[in-house]
């Protein structure tokens, strides 16, 4: 009996002891290698998956009756950038496995690739200015609805119980631009302007709101690959780390002047254009502005730049869309409101609603609609704002102003549909500010349900 017990004890303890010894060896000797391998594989997987997701996309309106009333339009820059990035990375991996490229060179190239990835926002505003301009427009509309004054009083409504009647709607005309217009070279060299250089490199608030997970995954993938290479045996190989930092620093030092140089050159031409306007040399001024626009493409999406071009073309007698828009704004200033409305609507029939002229026409018509609400002309406001929504139903400001017009005219049956449309429109936005807009729009929906006698829907919307 004792012999059989000893045999069973040895039989059990033998494999267990062996496994314990192997686990301790793995913990001591192989765990750093395993972690480096996991980091490298995770980085490779993240990079491959990043090409499936969008990197920067903006919503364009489709059918408002669909559950998703928009189509995400990816920036044209993204596809060629992804292709070049993937091709370089695949060639690097193949050549390193064949032994043609050493580990040191791989670290240098990966450091350069990480630096290039960080300049994707700059490439985006240079080569996809239209998509960047749409993102800037949407972002400003959201900001203007949530700032302290609340130009369609979403912020003010939080402080009023009977807010639907006591708060006056205001609408402030603000310049929409991807980046600030460089007025002159001396203005760029002021200490207060240095922070704006990050915006000239593409790191704007509108980019952060509409950039997608793909770009972030690619950055983390490169970082994990570098981590696996720099820590092959568990400890940090400082020689490889210095080489990776050298490649990264070289790329940063090369790209910053490359992307900032057009800003300074365009500032010089804009300064010349302003001087020529003062001397009544309108054609020369227009030529200077067009050169500045070619050198620095984000200028084409600025509402101030549009007004400058429209003013000059109007003085030259040119019948361009910019000149017609400028004429409409002048009619608006001298209180010829209905004539300017007609001109804005005519322009929207001829230009795409997401173009810079179309966006400014929509902004102007939305401003007219808000003015009609303040003048207690609710039926006229509903008619005008409904027309604006037909051209772009993703315009959250027009949507919200239309909700207010329906409430004040006691026609609340349309509000649930507008609330659902507004909620769908804000889904692709990565910003905490949209919570204020969604919360107050939901209050409108709840009020409409209560006034229509739908208590079940009212209680459902009242729950947090």
What's a concise summary of this model?
With 464 residues, the protein is mainly alpha-helical. The chain has helices at 2-50, 78-97, 103-117, 120-127, 129-146, 163-166, 185-188, 197-200, 205-210, 213-230, 238-278, 282-295, 303-315, 321-333, 337-350, 356-374, 378-391, 396-408, 415-425, 434-451, 455-462, and strands spanning 57-61, 70-74.
Describe this structure in words.
This protein has a two-stranded antiparallel ribbon with strand order 1-2. It is flat. The protein has helices at residues 2-50, 78-97, 103-117, 120-127, 129-146, 163-166, 185-188, 197-200, 205-210, 213-230, 238-278, 282-295, 303-315, 321-333, 337-350, 356-374, 378-391, 396-408, 415-425, 434-451, 455-462, and strands at residues 57-61, 70-74. 37% of the residues are buried. It has 464 residues and is an all-alpha fold. The protein contains 21 helices and 2 strands. A hairpin with an 8-residue loop joins strand 1 (57-61) and strand 2 (70-74).
Oligomerization: single chain
What shape does the CA trace take? flat
**Uncertain regions spanning at least 5 consecutive residues:** 1-23, 153-172
Instruction: Please list the strands of the largest sheet in the order they lie side by side.
Output: 1-2
What is the average of the pLDDT values?
A: 81
Number of distinct beta strands? 2
Number of helices: 21
- Specify the helix fraction band: 55-70%
Q: Mind describing the biggest β-sheet?
A: 2 strands, antiparallel
Helix and strand run: HEEHHHHHHHHHHHHHHHHHHHH
Radius of gyration: 29 Å
Q: Give the CA-CA distance, first to last residue.
A: 70 Å
Q: What structural category characterises the helix and strand content?
A: mainly alpha
What is the beta-strand fraction?
Answer: under 5%
């Amino acid at each position: 009996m004792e012999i059989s017990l000893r045999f069973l004890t040895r039989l059990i303890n033998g494999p267990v002891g062996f496994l314990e010894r192997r686990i301790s060896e793995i913990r001591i000797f192989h765990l750093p290698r395993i972690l480096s391998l996991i980091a490298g594989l995770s980085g490779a997987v993240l990079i491959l998956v990043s090409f499936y997701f969008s990197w920067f996309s903006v919503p364009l309106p489709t059918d408002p009756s669909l559950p998703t009333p928009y189509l995400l339009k990816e920036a044209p820059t993204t596809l060629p950038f992804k292709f070049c990035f993937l091709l370089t990375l695949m060639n690097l991996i193949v050549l390193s496995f064949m032994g043609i490229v050493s580990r040191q060179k791989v670290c240098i190239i990966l450091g350069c690739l990480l630096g290039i990835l960080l300049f994707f926002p700059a490439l985006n505003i240079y080569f996809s200015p239209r998509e960047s301009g749409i993102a800037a427009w949407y972002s400003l509309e959201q900001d203007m609805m949530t700032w302290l004054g609340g130009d369609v009083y979403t912020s003010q409504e939080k402080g009023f119980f009977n807010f639907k009647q006591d708060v006056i709607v205001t609408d402030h005309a603000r310049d929409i631009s991807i980046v600030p217009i460089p007025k002159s070279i001396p203005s760029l060299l002021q200490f207060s302007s240095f922070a704006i250089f990050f915006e000239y490199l593409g790191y704007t608030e509108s980019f952060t709101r509409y950039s997608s997970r793909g770009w972030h995954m690619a950055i983390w993938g490169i970082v994990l690959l570098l981590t696996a290479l720099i820590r092959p045996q568990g400890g940090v190989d400082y020689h490889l780390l210095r080489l990776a930092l050298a490649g990264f620093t070289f790329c940063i030092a090369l790209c910053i002047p490359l992307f900032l140089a057009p800003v300074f050159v365009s500032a010089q031409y804009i300064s010349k254009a302003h001087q020529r306007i003062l001397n009544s040399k309108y054609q020369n001024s227009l030529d200077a502005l067009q050169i500045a626009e070619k050198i620095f493409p984000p200028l084409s999406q600025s509402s101030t730049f549009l007004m400058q071009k429209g003013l000059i073309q109007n003085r030259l007698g040119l019948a361009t869309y910019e000149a017609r828009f400028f004429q409409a704004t002048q009619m608006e200033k001298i209180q010829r409101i209905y004539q300017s409305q007609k001109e804005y609507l005519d322009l929207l029939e001829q230009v795409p609603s997401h173009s810079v002229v179309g966006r400014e026409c929509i902004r102007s018509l939305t401003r007219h609609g808000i003015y009609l609400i303040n003048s207690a002309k609710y039926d006229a406001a509903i008619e005008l704002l409904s027309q604006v929504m037909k051209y772009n139903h993703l315009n959250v400001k027009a949507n919200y102003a239309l909700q207010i017009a329906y409430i004040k005219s006691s026609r609340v049956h349309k509000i649930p549909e507008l609330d659902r449309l507004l909620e769908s429109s804000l889904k692709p936005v990565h910003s905490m500010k949209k919570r204020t807009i969604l919360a107050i729009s939901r209050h409108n929906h709840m009020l409409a349900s209560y006034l229509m006698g739908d208590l079940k829907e009212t209680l459902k919307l009242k729950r947090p």
